[in-house]
């Protein structure tokens, strides 16, 4: 009976994540007004597969990916060592999103919700949402964090402060001494033992985070899409995108896990922008919009 329940739970998680992918794709197409997602179904050597959905050259979304996967099979030795486990039959499912807008005053956004399982004892939920504005607008930052806090508070009062701190620490580009953006929430290895919630409640929390994405991002698009911008704004956007690339290739654990588990390379690297620039020793002028943004790319800012 327990095995049957575990299988049903896995299937429920994957099914609800698929629904999240569908809802977000529909909503982003409406918000963009022009772009459409192209879907590619794929299978993983070793077990499972997924649905990669990419939008390119939309009215606002220059490149966006909303990916679902549910994979299973044998865990590679390197990952077993990292997780400190001896078993190797794993199951993992999740939705992963990265949106790169063409408009420099509309922010980059990333979301990931996921479930991983080795056995009854070794399983957990992880995920989060974070925002990477090319230019930090404080009202937008407060709105974004306020909405994430609301989503967390529905489940536990200590979730938002804890997960916000995790995001600050995780999305930190050590070699630049700056955060990737204004953070958000990031959590990993959530289970009943460390949350006081049931597995079903943790799944509901994960879905709630997934459902927070669309209304928050469409609001941020609408607030900024009609603002005028200059060539200087575009140059700064490409410069900020380069930091995004550096973080994803050097530090991002999802990228590393995907590469180490023989994941689908196009899906793993869909998070990279279509274009980024690495200017040499770029130093914004003191008092400029670019300079002000850099002052706000720090850990520990209380946005709510």
TrEMBL record:
Pathway: Porphyrin-containing compound metabolism; protoporphyrin-IX biosynthesis; protoporphyrinogen-IX from coproporphyrinogen-III (O2 route): step 1/1
SUPFAM superfamilies: Coproporphyrinogen III oxidase (SSF102886)
One family name in Pfam for this protein: Coprogen_oxidas
Top-level enzyme category: oxidoreductase
GO molecular function per UniProt: coproporphyrinogen oxidase activity
Keywords linked to the UniProt accession: Heme biosynthesis, Oxidoreductase, Porphyrin biosynthesis
Keyword check for Iron: no
Entry EC number(s): 1.3.3.3
Subunit and interaction comment: Homodimer.
Family according to the record: Belongs to the aerobic coproporphyrinogen-III oxidase family.
Name of the protein: coproporphyrinogen oxidase
Species in which this protein is naturally found: Pedobacter vanadiisoli
Gene transcribed to yield this protein: hemF
